[in-house]
Design goal:
single chain, alpha+beta, 5-stranded mixed beta sheet, 4-stranded antiparallel beta sheet, 2 helices, 9 strands, 42% strand, elongated
Length: 153
Amino acid sequence: MEINKKIFIETGILIGILVLLSSTVFAFAISSAYWKEYPLEILPGETQEISITLQNMAGEEDITIKGEIAENSQIIAEITDTNNIYLVPMGDKTKVNIKVTAPEDTKLGTYDLITSFSTVTEKEPGKFGFGSSIEHTLPVKVIGKESIINSSS
C-alpha cells in the first residue's frame, strides 16, 4: 500500500510540473529558399547576400531569437544585420540577412553552412527560464564557370 501512495504522489508532482512548463509555448520555425535538392550556388571567390526567414506562426506571444553561424566548413558566412537578436511578433515573420563567401581556393563541391537560432528568455529572479533552439542547414554548392555556361545552354 505504501508503494502505491508513493507512486501516486510522484505522478501528481510530475503532472504539476508538466502543467507549469506547458503554460508558455515558444514555437518558431526557419524557412529558406535553399535546401538539399536546391543548394545556394556560388563560384570560388564570389560573395552573395541571402536571407532566411524566422517564423512565429504557432506561438502564443512575441518571441526574441538570437541567431548565430554555428558551423561554416570551407564557406565564410556572417549575419549582416546590425544586431543578431530578432523580435518575431506572434503570427509574423522576420528576415535574417547573411553574407556568404566562397574563398578563391575553395574546392568545387557542396558544403553545409549551419546556422543556429535560440529563443532568448527573460528570467525573473528565482525562476527558471526555458527556451528552444533550432539548427538550420543551408547547403552551399561551389560550382565552376563551366556549370554556369552549361545551365544557360
